[in-house]
Structure formats: structure tokens, C-alpha cells
Amino acid sequence: MHADLMSMFDLSGRVALVTGSSRGLGRAVARGFAQAGAAVVICSRNLDSCEATVAEIHAEGGQAFAVAVNMSEPDAPTMLVQATVARFGRLDILVNNAATVLDRPLHRVQADTFHGAFGTNLLAPFLLVQAARPHLGASGHGAVINILSIAMAAGSPDRYYYPPIKAALAQATRTLALDLGPEGIRVNAISPGTFRTDMVTKAYDEETLVRRAAANPLGKIGDPAELVGPALLLASDAGAMITGAVLTVDAGATVAPSGRG
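Predicted structure:
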């Protein structure tokens, strides 16, 4: 029985494309998928960082391939899918994690930065799913995971790009689940709270992180490795009946009185 249960989470023979996977949450998820048996495509703008993550996966006995890509470029999604299939022959799992955290207060909202933020954080995931669709449908195990943020669920002063974009991607997740379900493709999302990534530790001092942790019911800030389990559930056969869902992973921040991580 134990072996049967473990097999539900096994990704052996599958190929996962994880954008923004050279660091932070994307890197943790990619490494976790590789440990579960998947061949993983590591991609971000920085090829050296991608290759460093690939080297870590190889050292752990996994399969990985590095691609440097700027998701704001219009042909990047098609190129990325083509590179994945050329290298591994298939594509089973797509994780839309790459994002820019560029934000602006109302008086600084401009057309160019607005379009740039929405292009990278919303249009690029659409185009990636579009390009990956035939391969995910042929997989028999096709799964898409969109990475959101709990910032989408509450007002954020002076933030007119990132939270609205993530809210839009949450709604798009539900629509994609409806459209792609008949093709055997599941589409879900994860909405993380505060995790101890390089981006977060650069944005907040330790005192602020301690205060945020204390405000959560679990009293903690997430380690990136703690996102692997939820992602593995949604990517594997263990989540075969889950589509159109937004899974919140935030140590209870959104149910706390403060409603934040």
C-alpha cells in the first residue's frame, strides 16, 4: 500500500518546464520535480544561474536542461516549448512562475511599464500554455500550475501592477481549466505567502520577517522547499481530480486577523 501511494506522486518519465527556475520558489519546485523523477527545463534570463541549478540537479542524480530566455520577448514562449520538446521529446508539466515584481503608485503608472509588467506576468503565461497545449494534451498527464501571490486578495497601497496581475491570472486559471479539461489537461494555481527567498530577504529586513511570521497562525515564514509538496500534488497523478483550483500556501496568513504573510 505504501508503495502504491508513493507511485501517485512519481513523475518518472515526465518532462516539466518551470519558468523563473534559477532561484527562489521556481528553483525549489524544479529541484523537487527532478527528485520525483521528472526531467526538468530550467529557464530564466541568466544562463549562468540556470546552469548552476542544472548542475545541482545533476549532482542529485536528476535530469535537467538550461535555457536562457526573456519572457517579455513575444517569441520566447514558442521558443521555450520548442527547445523543451527538441531536448526531451515531450512536455507534461508547465509551471508559470517567472514574474517581474515591478510596481508603481498611481501617480507613476505609465503605459510602457504597465504593458511590460502585464506582458511578462500575464500574457507570457497565456502564450506558454498556448504553445504547450498540443504536447500537454498528448501527454495523458498534462498539468499547468500558475504561481500567484496572496497579495492578489487584498488591497496593497501604491501597488497597481503586481497584485492586479496575479488576480487576473487566478481568474485565467479557472477559464483555462474549463477550456483545457476536455483535452485531459489540468490547470491549477498556487498562491504563496511570504517565503524566505533572495527576493524577499532583499526587500524586507529580519525584524519585518519576524513580525510577519508572528502574525501567521503557524508562526513561520516559508522555506522554498515547503512549496514542493503542494506543487507535486498538483503536478502528479495524486491530483488527478483537481483542476481550476487555487491552493493557498501561506502559513495561514490570509485567515489571520491581519490577512497578510
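Summary: Residues 111-139 form the longest helix (29 residues).
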